[in-house]
Each structure stands twice: as structure tokens, then as C-alpha cells.
Design goal:
By secondary structure, the chain is of the alpha/beta class. It is built from six helices and 13 strands. The longest helix has 27 residues, at 145-171. The structure holds fe (ii) ion (FE2) (2 copies). One fe (ii) ion (FE2) is lined by residues 54, 83-85, 182, 211.
Amino acid sequence: MSLYAIGDLHLHFGSVLKATHQRTDPLWKHHEQKFRLQCMRLLQPQDTLVLCGDHSWGRNLSEAEPDLEYIATLPGRKILLRGNHDMFWDSSKTQMLNERYQGRLFFLQNSFLPYGEYAITGTKGFTFEGPFYLDQHRRIIGWDQDAEAHAQKIIRREAERLRISLDAAQKAGYTKKIMFLHYPPTCILEHESIFTRLAEAYSVEKVFYAHCHGAARFHDSIEGTLHGIEYQLISGDYLKWQPWKIF
Ligand SMILES: [Fe+2]
Ligand SMILES: [Fe+2]
């Protein structure tokens, strides 16, 4: 029994591809085939794969369905988190999605799922991504205050969802926890955040996040160990479509 994770598949079996880099970057060429081959090679039916959001370019569930079907036919148990591009899944639709894909896909929000003695917890998360103002040396000298205030609202809401997930695991008696986010836990201005503080408060062992793709963004957030917790980026292009083996 093994646990794997990856994020940002950005599938488009049922929708129009709008991201030009996905058409032009060789890393993204037939990435859905590369990823499926890696999964067939690595995953056994008893394994678990956590997919950390941005599953589909579909603008609604009917456009996203072929992408969810593709994920459902991969080996192992599949647990999905919301990403910012997952238009098929607004927060009120989690129960409907879980009923519709019962036994095939698990949509994680305000809850947790067991993996052996561990609880798999998480939420979409959020982080401030600018606009930033730069000087001639490309150093950050300021940022849009309104955008930052708006980001803080979303961060508070997502931190509450994370707290609910962690509490649910705690109440069920899980002392060992792994945390998954779509967004990185910190923005480029921060060394810690409400998400890292929650990870510490609930004795989380490892934190995995996605969303940062394209080489320029691979080092936007925490990598390695902070206050005893391991942090790891697992976006698909960063991993070159090979799911990251956690255990
Ligand atoms: Fe993404
Ligand atoms: Fe994203």
C-alpha cells in the first residue's frame, strides 16, 4: 500500500484549451498520456493517489466529465482537492460530486480520509499573487493593497475549511496527519502563514502543494523542512508527470 500525490493535470478532453503554454511547451505535449503511463507503471489497486487541484479546464461539470472519467480509470483510490481552475466544483457541489462518483473518486473538502494510521487532510488554500510593483532591479517595492485585502478574505475562509478538515481528523482519533493544498502555503513575501501555523498546531508531518507551474514559479514557496514539517511542491510539470511517492 503506497500513497502518491500530484497536482495541476489541467486536462481538456471535453473543453477548449486556452492555455498557450500547454500547446507550445514540450513538457506538456501529450502530458495526459505520459501521466497515465507513469500511473500504470507505479500504482497498484490498493494504492492512493491524491490530486491537488486544477484537474480540468472544463467550464462546468459536463465539460469536465471526460477529465474526471480519465482520472477515475487510473489505478488506485483517487482523492481530489479543489483548484482555482476547477469550475465544475464550487464549494456547494462537494456532496453532489461525492454521490455521483461514489466509490470511484473522493472529493475532499471540510473532511478527511484515512490512509492507514494517517489522516489525509486539506483544502484549496489561497495565497496573495500580486500585482506587485518592482524597481529597475526587479525587486519588489510594493503591491496592490486592495488585491491584498481581498486575498486575505479568501485566505481566512480557506484556513477555516482547513481547520474543519484537521478537526475532523483529530476528533476521529488520528494523531498522524498529512496536509494537501492546491495553493502554496506561503506567498513570495512570506516565510510562514496561517496554513503553516495550522500545520504546526495540528502536528501535521508533511505538507504538499501544487499550483506553481512553469519553472519560474517552482521556488515560490517553502521547500524542505520548516519547524519540523516537510514541505513539497507536487505540480505535474514540476514532477514531469511522475506521481510523487509519499510512503
Ligand atoms: Fe494549475
Ligand atoms: Fe492553480
